[in-house]
Structure formats: structure tokens, C-alpha cells
């Protein structure tokens, strides 16, 4: 990692943790006061330090503190903040033109992003893509496409699922607080099924894959009817719901079941995609080929962009004009995506993600052996989590999770929590983070547990 200083941020930032004030410092606290009288309360902050520069594995705040980043802005800046290939392409594009609306007069960048998506997403069948602004919008459109292609209405989603905050995606999202509470009524024809959650499966982790598959397909048959189901949507590793990794065999069986019943299998890879789990997509791990795949977050190095990619005949079943949006596939965001995907390929970021997992998992497992509050260490590549529960039980321990997160924040390590029960600490470092910073971050986490 380079260590020369750059006032603009990006990869030239010194790659070290450095605290010069308490967290948050006086400059951040002043901005926080302004924020409180201008920004809606409903938009929360995990850690109220105001960022002025970021790059590699660090975030620099308004007080000059340099924090280690184990969050990547929720799995977005996988290529690092202001990654060189993203920055140069974005700067070129923004000087050329900023918007025409692809539906009015098209431009090459949109087409090139769709070509890259066809190349990198699972399966070598003929594909088409459509671009949108946010993950939720991509999920909404995947459901629209599945319904249009099948002529059916029902959509099957899972316990602990997170698919967004718009009306349809709130209905697909499992967790009430804070995502859904008093925001109803929600969209109809959504059916929720138990998730293959090895730690919490009643029959135990060994029986989880087979039993969960039987329960899910049994419930679909009894309560919905296979012929009424347009789509099954699932995150191949659940994100906000707690980084739940379904046991091997569950996803392939589900995909095959869908194929057998004319149901569209939608993989929501918005959090897992773009090298995060050590493959281009989490579905690649077991060779699962989804009919439709939704992507966003890591796609464009921080520029807002999302996509639905899928089988040409399904995507093209929608009438001309049936998909779109004013900003979807904005040229500046597309330039960012081309730079991000080029970086992933040139720097083998899937390999980097595997290496991050190889460093993190053994240290976290050792920590778990020493501390009975850690009920589970799980994840793949650079998408890793620990679930906390009262010692000797599976009773969730959300207070401990937030206490550890707070201790990490105070020490200059940005970690995030998640989980239906709020008891999961998740780690999503930028894939370009230096190994010394990664190890230092893990030491800070160990210190936080030692200080419980
Ligand atoms: C973040 C996320 C979404 C929603 O994406 P937004 O860009 O926040 O709308 C949907 N699905 C998954 C799996 C996500 O992690």
C-alpha cells in the first residue's frame, strides 16, 4: 500500500489509523448539530464522524482522524474509495456530458456496462440487462419482469431477507424495526418462507439444507400453489438479515425446483456481488445460475447504479417502454461501473477477497473459542460476520454487539452491525485494504472483546 499523502483522498491517503481527537471530535460534533436541525431524524448514522477523504482501507474525518474501514459504505467501495480507474473514467465522462436519459438518446457507456454484466454474471446463456439507480429499484424491476414473463403474481421471499425500503421491497424485507414499522400497507402477493439458517435450524446445521428445502417447497405447495408463483427471490448470503450463509446444497436445490415449476429464480446479489465473497458472484460458489440477478452496491465504486441481468427471453418478454426511469444507467455512474469492473479484473479482487477471508476467519474463530458470547463465525471471502448470543444458549445478545461496535468506533475501527435480532457484527472491508490494516483492525476487535 502506498503511504504518500494526498489532500484529495483516494488511494494516495496514508494507510494508517491515527486518532487525534475523541470520536466524534469537535468538528464532527459541530456538523452533527447542523445535521440535527436540517436532516430528517429517520435517516440514521452508525458512527457520526463526518468524512472529508477516503481511500484504500481508511476514512479520514473532519477532525483529521484516520479510521480503519471495515464497512466499505455497506459493501459499496469494494475497489476502494476514489479508485484510480473509477475516478479517471468518471472525470472524463463528467466533462463530456452528464445526462441525456438513455430512453431519449442513448450512449455507449450503458451498453458497455450491460455487456460487462453479461460477461461476469453466472451462466453463459444469452443475457440482457436494464440499469437503475438503487438496489431497491432493481429488485422492484426484477419482480415486474418475472411477473410479466410468467403471467403469475406470487413472489416467495425468506425470513431474515432484506431487499430494500420502497413499498414492494419493504414487503419483501423481513424485519419490522426499523424498516417497516407503521409504513404499511405493503404490497400483496408476497409469501415468506423459513430460511435455511444453519445456526438456528431446529434440526441442527447438518439437516438444515434438506429439511429447509422440504419445508419451503411443502409450504409453497400447500399455501400458494407452484403454478401461481412468479418468482422466488433470495440473497445467496443474506446481508442485513445477519450474513446468514445457507448450507451447501440448499441454493442449487431451490434453483432446480424453480426450473422444474416454471418459477423465475431471482438471486439478489446486491450485497454479495462483485467479488465480495471471493467469486464474481456468490452464486458462483456452487455453480448456481439464476434466471435473474439483481446487482447494485459494489457495482460502480460508489457511484449510484443498479442492474437487473437475466435470460434474454425473460428480459425481452417485457413490451417496449415497460422498463426504465429518468436517471437509470446515468452516464457518469456507468463510467464508474466500467472503471470498477476493470479494477476487479485487473487486480483480481476476487482473489483478494478470498485472502481477506483466509486472514479473518482463523483469528475470529480463535476469538470465538476464547469468548462464549460468540455463537457463530461465518461468511465467505470479505463478507464475514460473528453472531453474539448469551453464553451456552442461542438467546441473541444485541446489547453486546452494540457495545463492541461502540468500542471499535472509539478505537478508530468502523464496523457495522446487522441481523434480525441486532446481534451480528459484520465485516466488509474494501477488497484493496492493506493486510497490516486488516490485522490491526482485527486486533482492535479482539481488544474490544477483552474489554467487555
Ligand atoms: C442494500 C440492499 C438492497 C437495497 O439496495 P438500495 O440501493 O439500498 O436500495 C437490496 N437487497 C440487498 C441484498 C441489499 O443488501
Q: Can you describe this structure?
A:
This protein has 452 residues and is α/β, with parallel strands linked by helices. The chain has two domains: 2-69 and 348-450, Alpha-Beta Complex (Aspartate Aminotransferase, domain 1), CATH 3.90.1150; 86-346, Aspartate Aminotransferase, domain 2 (3-Layer(aba) Sandwich). The protein is 37% helix and 16% strand. It has 13 helices and 15 strands. It has a seven-stranded mixed beta sheet, sandwiched between helices. Strands 1-2-3-13 form a four-stranded mixed beta sheet. The protein has a four-stranded antiparallel beta sheet with strand order 11-12-15-14, with helices on one face. β5 (154-158), α6 and β6 (190-193) form a beta-alpha-beta unit. α3 packs antiparallel against α10, α4 (108-120) packs parallel to α10 (331-346) and α11 (349-370) packs parallel to α13 (435-450). The two termini are 33 Å apart. Mean pLDDT is 97; it is low at 1-7. Pyridoxal-5'-phosphate binds next to α5.
- Biggest sheet, strands in spatial order? 4-10-9-8-7-5-6
Number of H- or I-type helical stretches: 13
Sheet having the most strands: 7 strands, mixed
Query: Which assembly state applies to the chains in this document?
Result: single chain
Bound molecules: pyridoxal-5'-phosphate
CATH architecture identity of the largest domain: 3-Layer(aba) Sandwich
> What is the CA-CA span between the terminal residues?
33 Å
Number of folding domains?
Answer: 2
Overall form: globular
Q: Using the CA coordinates, give the radius of gyration.
A: 21 Å
Mean pLDDT: 97
CATH class designation of the largest domain: Alpha Beta
Task: Say how many strands there are.
Answer: 15
Give the percentage of residues in beta strands. Answer: 15-25%
State the low-pLDDT regions, or none: 1-7
Sequence of secondary-structure elements: HEEEHHHEHEHEHEHEEEHHHEEHEEEH
Structural class: alpha/beta
The CATH superfamily name of the largest domain is Type I PLP-dependent aspartate aminotransferase-like (Major domain)
Q: The CATH topology of the largest domain is what?
A: Aspartate Aminotransferase, domain 2
Q: Helix content range of the residues, please?
A: 25-40%
